[in-house]
Amino acid sequence: MSGPGHDGDESVRIPDHDLDDLVCTVTRLVAASRKQSETLARLTDDQPAVELQEPGEPTAEPGAVPVSSRSADTQDLGASQDDGPSSVFILALDGKAYAEELAALTRWVHDLLLPVYGREITTGRPWCRQWQEHPEAVARLHALWLAWQQLTDIEAGLTGPSTWHRDHLDPTWMQLRMPDGPFGACTTSPGRPNHRLLASPEPAGA
Predict the structure, then answer these.
(1) What's the CA gap between 3 and 6, in Å, rounded?
(2) CB 35 within 8 A of CB 27
(3) Distance CA 106, CA 89 (A)
(4) Cα(90)–Cα(109) distance, rounded to whole angstroms?
C-alpha cells in the first residue's frame, strides 16, 4: 500500500479522447489567431497615408496628380522607351537582338512547324532551306510564331489553337508557298535545292 508521500510522484494521464479535443481546440485557436492577424494587416495596409498640409498651402483638386509624381512618371516613361525596342516584332529589332530572335524562330520552324505542317515540296508549293535570307519569310514566320505563343497559351481558351490554324497558319502558309511567293525562284523539287532572292521594286526616286 502506498503511503501519502508517494501521491505526488504518480504521473497524471489525460484520457485520449480529452487529448484529441484539446488538440482540436488549439488548432482552431491558432487558425483563428492567424486569420485575425491577416485581417489586421490587410486593414492596416489599406489605410491611406495622411499628409500634413502647411497652413496657407493650396489644396489640391480631387484626382490631381502631384507634380513630383508626374515628373517621376515622365522620367520612368522616357527611360522605358530608351531601354529597348518599342515592338517585339522581329523587323523592329537589330544587331544582337535580331540575331537572338531569329535563332529562336529558326528552332521553332525546324522543330515544330516544318515537321508537322511542311508537306511536300512541289512546283506549286516551293520552299527554301535558306528562308532566313528572305525578309518577307522571316517577317511572316515570326508573326506566325508570335500568334502561336499567344493562342496556344492556356489563357487563350480551348479554341485558341483552332483560331491559330484558321487565322494565322493557313493564310501565312498560302502566301509563303504559292508559286509567285517569296520562294518562287527557290526549291521546287526536293532533289534540286535552289535559293534565289527575287528582285523587289525600287522605291521612287532611287
Answers:
(1) 6
(2) no
(3) 15
(4) 15
Neighbours of 129 (CB within 10 A): 12
| 143, 101 Cβ separation under 8 angstroms | no
Grid cell locating 47: 489605410
Highest average pLDDT, of 5-14, 98-107, 185-194, comes from 98-107
| 138: nearest Cα among 197, 64, 65 | 197
What is the model's pTM?
0.59
User: Exposed, middle or buried: residue 37 (CB in 10 Å: 0-12, 13-18, 19+)?
Assistant: exposed
**Interval 60-74: pLDDT, tens:** 444 444 433 334 443
Q: Which three cell numbers stand for residue 79?
A: 527611360
Cβ-defined contacts of 173-181 (< 8 Å, 24+): 173/117, 175/140, 176/136, 176/137, 176/140, 176/141, 177/125, 177/126, 177/127, 179/123, 179/124, 179/126, 181/126
Return d(Cα 161, Cα 150) in angstroms, integer: 9
| Amino acid letter, residue 187 | T
Give per-residue pLDDT as tens, 97-152.
Answer: 999 999 999 999 999 999 999 999 999 999 999 999 999 999 999 999 999 999 99
DSSP code per residue over 10-34: SPP---HHHHHHHHHHHHHHHHHHH
